[in-house]
Amino acid sequence: MAGYETGFRDLTEEVRDRDLPVEGNVPAWLDGSLYRNGPARWTVGDAEADHWFDGLAHLTKFAFDGGAVRYTNRFPRTDAYRAAVEDGSFAGQFSSTDGYLSRVKSMLAGDSTDNANVHVARIGGELVALTETPNWLRIDPETLERRGTLDYDDDLTTHHVTAHLRQDPDSGANWGYFTRFGRRNEYVLFRIPEGTTRRERVGSVRVEKPAYMHSFALTADHAVLVEPPLVTHPTKFLLPGAGGFIDNYDWEPSRGTRFLLFGRDSGELVRETTVPAFFTFHTANAFERERNDAAELVVDLVAYDDDSAVTDLSMNALRGGGAGFPSGELRRYRLPLDGEEPAHESLADGVEMPRFSPERHTREYEHVFAQSTEMDGGNALVRVDVGGDGGGERGVARRWEESGIFSGEPIFVPHPEGDAEADGVVLSLCLDTEAERSVLVVLDGDLTELARAPLPHAVPFGFHGEYFRD
Ligand code: CO
Q1: CA of 178 to the centre of ligand 1 (A)
Q2: What's the pLDDT at 249?
Q3: Other Cβ atoms within 10 Å of 243 Cβ, number
Q4: Quick check: 322 pLDDT over 60?
Q5: N or C end of the chain: smaller count of CB under 10 Å?
Q6: CA-CA distance, 401 to 379, in Å (whole number)?
Q7: What residue spans define the domains of the chain?
Q8: C-alpha of residue 117 to centroid of ligand 1, in Å
Q9: Those residues with Cβ within 8 angstroms of residue 292's Cβ, 6 or more apart along the chain or in another chain
Q10: In this structure, which topology does domain 4-468 adopt according to CATH?
């Protein structure tokens, strides 16, 4: 895709609280801040990070106030940043042979990086930058500078942890899971009560060969782990010459993909369902419902046929323009809670980064917002309508695209007094490859553009973000 490589160029400029020029009208009710995270620098001198996911963490903030947009960006001065930029080397944090998940390998050796470049959350009243090791960073919400690592008010030992927490809409608790390696490998489900930094152990399941998992799903009654057959045996990490973390994972499709359903109240593994193998990074929403007099649990997620979505993201491939965004199928899995066979259906092709209204989390819902890769020279944003079991239309219902623009993750912000699910705005940090700079795009829930605000520079393609009301 032409221009695509622009999204992998190092950024070095940092600005603070800068007024962005706004074309169009940003709704005045939008009065909070959007924070985003992602890798934005891969080279220092001759040293180069090997995998896209290994770039230095870079945070952006867009503060909305009365239709104005103020922008701040910062590389938090982490140990990883200092080692790379001040010592002129990525050595010790990344290596040319160890990939993205080498962080976990380092952790098993007692030395893991603090390059928290995946996501953001609010934990214990603070803004936190997240990665897939437990080294999460407390971040100053104004300057985006590192305040320190997050101290957990518990004594849990964790190795690999999801950076995709799910906030319970009722209690405000952040739910997650981690994998603990050892003589006994286990997946552990936890929750962090609102206002605390305490990970409470909810339940666990022992596994012989842990899988690489990236996100999970929460419903009103269950927490659902989706376990693809990309598996390892942790003793492999400890062998000399075993390579990067991800190299120790094997795709074993004959195992199938398992859904592990935990009761939220009991913490017990109440159901286990195996379906033909697929890989996934991201779930969308999930919920229970009654359908045809039977109870089922619905999980929407982006599925891939195999693990190539993980292995195709080397910097060499991306900077050469030879690879594409991972492009999966938005799929709905219907898991009966009464012993019937599971089923799935396709909702849309060629999408990633699914988001939905936080007000519909854990409930039946109508709209998924996602990136779409079905165009040349850019990425569209789409709204996939996923209701319609009652006979309505399903599939891609709305679309926003512009030549030369690659869109970022579409974050939906509901109108505080809105009625309809789509009453709100979609915020997406996009890359204008012709102008070689990024632009924050504000769309309504029908993906009609309301406003855009060009940035002073190009922010490389990032991962995830959240909007927080002030
Ligand atoms: Co993710």
Answers
A1: 15
A2: 84
A3: 15
A4: no
A5: C
A6: 7
A7: 4-468
A8: 10
A9: none
A10: Methylamine Dehydrogenase; Chain H (2.130.10)
* Mean confidence (pLDDT) of the chain: 89
Residue 99 has a pLDDT of 46
User: Is residue 226 scored above 50 in pLDDT?
Assistant: yes
Distance 118 CA to ligand 1 centre (A): 7
The CA R_g of the chain, rounded to the nearest whole Å, is 21
338 C-alpha to ligand 1 centroid (Å)? 31
Q: Which of 299-313, 384-398, 431-445 has the highest mean pLDDT?
A: 431-445
Q: CB–CB of 332/267 below 8 Å? A: no
Contact by Cβ (8 Å): 226, 280: yes
pLDDT above 80 (res 32): yes
> How far does the centroid of ligand 1 lie from the alpha carbon of residue 282, in Å?
6
* Angstrom distance (rounded) from CA 4 to CA 2: 5
CB 152 within 8 A of CB 197: yes
The pTM for the full model equals 0.93
Residues 336 and 342: beta-carbon distance below 8 Å: yes
In whole angstroms, give the CA distance from residue 89 to residue 82: 9
Report how far ligand 1's centroid is from the alpha carbon of 283 (Å): 9
β partners of residue 123:
126
The closest of 251, 360, 349 to 307, measured between CA atoms, is 251
Find the mean pLDDT for residues 192-214: 96
**Type and span of the H or E element at 302:** strand 294-304
**Nearest of 293, 303, 300 to residue 337 by alpha carbon:** 293
